[in-house]
Write a structure and sequence with these properties.
alpha+beta; Alpha-D-Glucose-1,6-Bisphosphate, Chain A, domain 4; Nuclear Transport Factor 2, Chain: A; eight-stranded mixed sheet; seven-stranded antiparallel sheet; elongated
Length: 450
């Protein structure tokens, strides 16, 4: 039985160049920062002008998800879309974005939909028409706002923070996923309510304390994705933000994992002076938001680190093992100071890795590590360099390795001059037993100030 095809059209005039408007519609991954109903978009496939997208969005207050194919006509400034798999009460849906140039340099945007309703039932048709009308109106109005703020201080801006963790990634992912426990686990969370009526779609309402002692209520939808990724969009934001989206990711490393918190924010310019004072600017608001969101995220990740590392450190090293670790580091640093690069590289496993925050990629393999040491610039004539390593903390992990954390300084002393600290670092190692001694399987050196 063929259901009736229903069609709609919504239009708006935008005081921006057609190409700029088209770009906003084309970049589907940015839709959550542009369109209020959009929660998250994943590009599943992309080839030339063809795309396949997984989309999460609100419709009449409900979270819906579907997969769509898009065909981009960049010269004609048109984008056709068709849902592959629709969600009840939608049986099928497609449409087209059409951006037309106006004589004054602006644009007319037309958003067309065609759809069939499940069972062709009147209530389903009504539900879909209401959702299309509400979402299309909100999207077109937001598209105009986004086009006008492009290139200004009110454009979306993104920042991120990260924390290295000496524990399996899954422990950290579990901590971030179980947000319903955050009131017990996080000092800046005063109240939390988590609902997950649909698997992997979480509704999170939370009261968060700010440094000035005030409390802000936020409401978010969190999409839980493979490999522990969690993306979210705040549906209820503090006054200073008109848009806030974010993402938690946890990346495996040889020594544990790295947790990353990423935020994208649009400042609510109308609220800046009311919230921050009469002389405040949008730039001040960006700094304030960066400090508050980044601070809270970092607190969350540090508590996740404490939680995961506590669970992973099931066996403290014995006093004898700790003494042997100290002996190992004393010998290793002296080899480096003496310029014995090949011997220093031999203190790594054959497949060992050496990584620094200043590296784009780790150096992998003992031979490559030895070559890197040989290639590093020598100290100037008459200058002595020493490596000082602070007392390491050490834990035995379930896989039998020993994980250590320590601080290290590089001190340079020129003839007739006072010593100068050349580098201050925080380091994490994975050590494996080698007879009565140790070898480094993985080392990460984080430079302070980077």
């Amino acid at each position: 039985m063929a259901y009736e095809v229903h069609t709609t059209e919504h239009t708006i005039t935008v005081a921006a160049a057609p190409e700029a408007v088209f770009g906003l519609v084309e970049r589907a991954e940015d839709w959550p920062h542009v369109f209020p109903p959009s929660l998250h978009v994943e590009c599943l496939e992309r080839s030339g002008d063809e795309e396949r997208l997984r989309i999460w969005a609100t419709a009449n207050g409900e979270v819906k998800s579907w997969t769509s194919r898009r065909t981009l006509d960049r010269e004609g400034l048109r984008i056709r879309f068709r849902q592959e798999v629709s969600q009840d009460p939608v049986a099928a849906m497609g449409g087209e974005w059409i951006i037309e140039a106006l004589p004054d340099g602006g644009s007319r945007v037309r958003l067309l939909h065609d759809f069939r309703a499940v069972g062709d039932l009147e209530r389903n048709v009504g539900w879909i028409l209401e959702a299309i009308d509400r979402n299309s109106g909100a999207e077109l109005a937001a598209l105009e706002s986004a086009a006008l703020r492009t290139g200004t201080d009110e454009a979306p801006y993104t920042f991120e923070d990260s924390v290295r963790i000496d524990a399996p990634a899954q422990e950290v992912r579990d901590f971030l996923h179980d947000a319903g426990l955050w009131q017990e686990r996080l000092p800046h969370v005063a109240r939390v309510l988590l609902k997950e009526d649909t698997p992997d779609v979480q509704h999170l309402e939370m009261d968060t304390r700010t440094p000035d002692g005030s409390t802000h209520t936020t409401a978010s939808v969190r999409i839980c994705l493979p490999e522990g990724r969690i993306t979210y969009k705040q549906l209820q934001t503090p006054a200073l933000m008109s848009v806030h989206t974010g993402e938690w990711t946890v990346r495996e490393t040889p020594s544990g994992c790295v947790a990353v918190s990423r935020h994208t924010v649009v400042v609510n310019a109308a609220a800046v002076t009311k919230v921050l004072g009469a002389s405040a600017t949008t730039a001040d608001a960006r700094t304030f938001i960066r400090d508050v969101l980044g601070g809270n995220s970092t607190i969350t990740m540090r508590h996740a680190k404490e939680y995961a590392e506590r669970r992973a450190r099931t066996e403290p090293v014995s006093p004898a093992e700790y003494a042997s670790v100290q002996q190992f580091y004393a010998r290793q640093m002296r080899l480096l100071d003496a310029g014995e690069g090949d011997a220093w590289a031999d203190t790594f496993t054959e497949d060992g890795a050496f990584d620094q925050s200043s590296f784009s990629e780790p150096v992998r393999g003992r031979a490559a590590i030895a070559a890197a040491v040989r290639e590093r610039p020598a100290a100037p004539a008459g200058t002595v360099r020493r490596h000082w390593l602070g007392l390491p903390a050490a834990w035995r992990f379930p896989d039998g390795s020993v994980r250590t954390g320590y601080d290290a300084l590089v001190v340079s002393t020129a003839t007739g001059s006072a010593p100068v600290i050349r580098l201050s670092t925080s380091c994490q190692d994975v050590l494996v037993a080698d007879g009565d001694g140790w070898l480094v399987r993985h080392r990460y050196v984080g430079h302070d100030g980077q």
